[in-house]
């Protein structure tokens, strides 16, 4: 007697679908070579600091050993830069892993998790994997002046129920690019009951220059709020997406909870030294920030000249509304070897998300659009 293997999976897994990676990029790289323009994954075309390659080369002879399970050196460097204690930091195999871990630690089938419509996709996946009930709160309207389709903080706070254990926000958010400032975050946190752990996903924090907007890490200095966790990553502004290093900052108590379930060697030895080297090269980081801000505004202006709606962004990508189903446009760009990210999966079929690349890459994109 045979039985569908899926029927043996737990209830949460049965409801999940495998991640859809989109186009087969390795195959496309083989096919197109240097002609391929990759603007679909919010990577940084400037590349990582040269110090990273040197650090990896120096660490290669020791790859037969397990990595430092505590990531002590990287945590000390992060703690010094962020102004927190090392006990307030957990490291992850990318911040994606940490978001999943947080959901696994704090949510279960008896609880609910609150996040925004158009919020980062992993919030929904982590919630589903934990078997928790998702409370997806409508986003701000598309004609909102400051944050179109962004998080409605008042509605998110109002959606919290007695069984809510987690609330995810992303600041700035992917895929909308929208953000909120410190005053808005403070007011929002003041409205939340203490049975809710608030996660502020700051994958793009390094890019933020808007007045009054800084990192929620400021609330974690000197011990900090017990139920606030901030996640950050080396994938975006530090250009290390391929090495998978992220971190969470919280109260020492909250981080200790994550440590109970964290895989002992979740960050590999090359990722650890690479992240340390990237963090130390503040000049390269500044170059990436400045280049991205300037090229983002240049590209946004060119797209707006074409009559397209470009959402405000404090990140290294732009959400662009084409005013009609964008699938055909995405396919045509693809035939010109320009890869961007369709947004139908997020419920935004008229939009494409486009990474801010080098000027030459943006020009290729604009030519292909023409
Ligand atoms: C890219 C991204 C992450 C995950 O990045 P990792 O590579 O897993 O560190 C997390 N949150 C948001 C909003 C992102 O866009």
From TrEMBL:
Family: Belongs to the class-II pyridoxal-phosphate-dependent aminotransferase family. Histidinol-phosphate aminotransferase subfamily.
Modified residues (N6-(pyridoxal phosphate)lysine): 236
SUPFAM superfamilies per record: PLP-dependent transferases (SSF53383)
Domain called Aminotransferase class I/classII large: residue spans: 36-369
Catalytic activity field: L-histidinol phosphate + 2-oxoglutarate = 3-(imidazol-4-yl)-2-oxopropyl phosphate + L-glutamate
Keyword Amino-acid biosynthesis: yes
Self-association state and partner proteins as the record states: Homodimer.
Short name of one Pfam family: Aminotran_1_2
GO MF: histidinol-phosphate transaminase activity
UniProt name for this protein: Histidinol-phosphate aminotransferase
Cofactor: pyridoxal 5'-phosphate
The entry's keywords: Amino-acid biosynthesis, Aminotransferase, Histidine biosynthesis, Pyridoxal phosphate, Transferase
Cited InterPro entries: Aminotransferase_I/II_large, HisP_aminotrans, HistidinolP_aminotransfase, PyrdxlP-dep_Trfase, PyrdxlP-dep_Trfase_major, PyrdxlP-dep_Trfase_small
NCBIfam families the record matches: hisC
Pathway: Amino-acid biosynthesis; L-histidine biosynthesis; L-histidine from 5-phospho-alpha-D-ribose 1-diphosphate: step 7/9
Gene: hisC
Enzyme Commission (EC) number: 2.6.1.9
């Amino acid at each position: 007697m045979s039985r569908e293997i899926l029927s043996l999976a737990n209830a949460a897994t049965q409801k999940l679908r495998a991640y859809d990676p989109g186009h087969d990029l390795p195959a496309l790289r083989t096919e197109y070579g240097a002609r391929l323009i990759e603007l679909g994954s919010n990577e940084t075309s400037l590349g990582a600091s040269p110090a990273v390659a040197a650090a990896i080369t120096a660490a290669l002879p020791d790859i037969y050993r397990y990595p430092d399970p505590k990531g002590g050196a990287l945590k000390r460097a992060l703690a010094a830069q962020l102004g927190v204690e090392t006990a307030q930091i957990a490291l992850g195999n990318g911040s994606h892993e940490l978001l999943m871990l947080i959901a696994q630690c704090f949510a279960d089938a008896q609880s609910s998790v609150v996040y925004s419509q158009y919020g980062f996709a992993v919030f929904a996946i982590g919630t589903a994997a934990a078997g928790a009930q998702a409370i997806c709160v409508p986003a701000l309207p598309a004609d909102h002046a400051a944050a179109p389709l962004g998080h409605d903080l008042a509605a998110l706070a109002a959606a919290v129920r007695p069984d809510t254990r987690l609330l995810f926000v992303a600041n700035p958010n992917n895929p909308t690019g929208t953000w909120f400032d410190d005053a808005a975050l403070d007011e929002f946190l003041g409205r939340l009951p203490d049975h809710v752990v608030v996660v502020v996903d700051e994958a793009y924090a390094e890019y933020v220059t808007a007045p009054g907007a800084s990192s929620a890490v400021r609330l974690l200095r000197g011990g900090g709020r017990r139920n606030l966790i901030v996640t950050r990553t080396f994938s975006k502004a530090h250009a290390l997406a391929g090495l998978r290093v992220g971190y969470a900052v919280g109260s020492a108590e909250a981080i200790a909870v994550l440590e109970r379930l964290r895989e002992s060697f979740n960050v590999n030895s090359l990722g650890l030294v690479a992240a340390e080297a990237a963090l130390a090269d503040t000049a390269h980081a500044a170059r990436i920030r400045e280049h991205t801000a300037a090229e983002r505004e240049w590209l946004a202006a060119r797209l707006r000249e074409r009559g397209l709606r470009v959402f405000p962004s404090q990140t290294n990508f732009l959400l662009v509304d084409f005013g009609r189903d964008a699938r055909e446009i995405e396919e045509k760009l693809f035939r010109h070897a320009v890869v961007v990210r369709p947004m139908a999966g997020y419920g935004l079929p008229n939009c494409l998300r486009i990474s801010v690349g080098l000027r030459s890459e943006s020009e290729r994109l604009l030519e292909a659009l023409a």
